[in-house]
Amino acid sequence: xxxxxxxxxxxxxxVYHATIYTVDDSFRIAQAMAVRQGKILAVGSDQQILHDxxxxxxxxxxxxxxxxxxxxxxxxxxxxxxxxxxxxxxGTRSWEEVLNRVKSFADAHPQGWIVGRGWDQNDWPxxxxxxxxxxxxxxxxxxxxxTRVDGHAAIANGEALQxxxxxxxxxxEGGLFVIKQGRLTGVLxxxxxxxxxxxxxxxDDTMKLRALQEAEQHCFAxxxxxxxxxxLPKQTIDxxxxxxxxxxxxxxxxxxxADEKENYDYYLRQGPYKTxxxxxxxxxxxxxxxxxxxxxxxxxxxxxxPGWYGFLLKDRKYFDSIAHVLINSPFQMCTHAIGDSANRxxxxxxxxxxxxxxxxxxxxxxxQVVHPDDIRxxxxxxxxxxxxxxxxxxxxxxxxERLGKERLRYAYAFQDLLRQNSWLPLGTDFPVEDIDPRKTxxxxxxxxxxxxxxxxxxxxENALTHQQALQGMTIWAARAQxxxxxxxxxxxxxxxxxxxxxxxxxxxxxxxxxxxxxxxxYQAGQQVYAQTRx
Length: 534
Fold this sequence. Notes:
The chain is of the alpha/beta class. The protein has 3 domains: 9-63, Urease, subunit C, domain 1 (Roll), CATH 2.30.40.10; 72-76 and 204-523, Alpha-Beta Barrel (TIM Barrel); 86-198, Roll (Diaminopimelate Epimerase, Chain A, domain 1). The protein contains 20 helices and 26 strands. The strands form 5 sheets. Strands 10, 17, 18, 19, 20, 21, 22 and 23 form an 8-stranded mixed beta sheet that branches. A 6-stranded mixed beta sheet has the order 4-3-9-24-25-26, covered by helices on one side. Helix 2 (77-83) crosses helix 7 (205-221). The termini are far apart. Mean pLDDT is 96; it is low at 1-5. InterPro entries: Amidohydro_3 (IPR013108), Metal-dep_hydrolase_composite (IPR011059), Metal_Hydrolase (IPR032466), YtcJ-like (IPR033932). GO terms for molecular function: hydrolase activity, acting on carbon-nitrogen (but not peptide) bonds.
């Protein structure tokens, strides 16, 4: 009798009595999962797992729903953390509201630069860029820099412009100092922003750590366990890595190195870098700016600004030279491209060095407006479109004014892009958009805002299915950063990163998705967030 008895295997954690979406190749649904040393041992039925495994910690999930830890395929985690130390201008409905928030911040922080982010003139009456006149009156001797929500435009006051040495008539490649009647308005577009931003004194490491830990908790609270941080200097990557190795930061980060000489000099010599929490295997470049600030580079003029096409941020020869360097390295090339001209340029450059059927996973970040003649290049050369569904539902109110009806038809075309390679990573671009993956899912599937506008969805022919949206936030996002063998689905051998939700994301009515409570978030089998109940 003893010889017939099956000995149970030891685990650290068993979760059971759940509906577990494994997001494996067959999209299997299970009931229970065993975890040891941060990795998944087995996934199966309650009966199987409870019979075959024992653990000091058992968690009855009471019928709730489990998904792989959400992965944001395109975000700016470090920038988001630093933004928590500045004026939050998101959601402002007028320039006056911006000024009021800045005054309140200045009263509470009476010294140093005033820095803020999040305004969007498209949400204001008249939809016009602001002017620095009132900032100059309020802060004649204190520099101010307020960045637009997308990071591709900002407004500086006179003191900041003077410290930067900017004068009317000055020009630079890939940027614009907006002038009216021979006077600087303070509005800076794309590369012009850096002329002022580089003067802002750096924060000390203690403040940075506090902000990063707060940002991490915000991410865990919405089910994010991994983020791709797009465009970081080596110094920042090293700082984040040191915090992770010291156990002071737990967020997993896929760090794309910024398009800077120091990064190329170091990483091309040393090769990719990887730990359990940090992975550096890509370079992030910017081909153009944003549609909202009219910096996106278009094939035909903006409908609401005749004669204006936007611009590339660097000469085409520069992007071509980087592609020829990176093709002979193990690194991804990931390029921000919004307008149809920028997308065409980058797709053609990629195609000139990539071979059909390659597995290099070079990416176009955003791919917002892609001409129908060019979309085939994604599939022919296995180029990955990395998209952000909430951009579509944020831009839909005014994108037609920029693009016109005909061109709008091939913008935010997620199904068309998905068909090219049969997979599509999803992200948010936070802090440009909200960090919450539930909003990503909702925007991808229903193409509506939180009020249910427009009825039937914005260009619903390009909506994703429930399954596609979940895959985009998990296994496809992992694949986009060469990590599909260790995360993105709940399978034996992978990290036990998972999210517990009260209701079924795959079945709940649309109106309930944004309010579907996240009960807990686990990373490597450790609970890093638990909902607090009143």
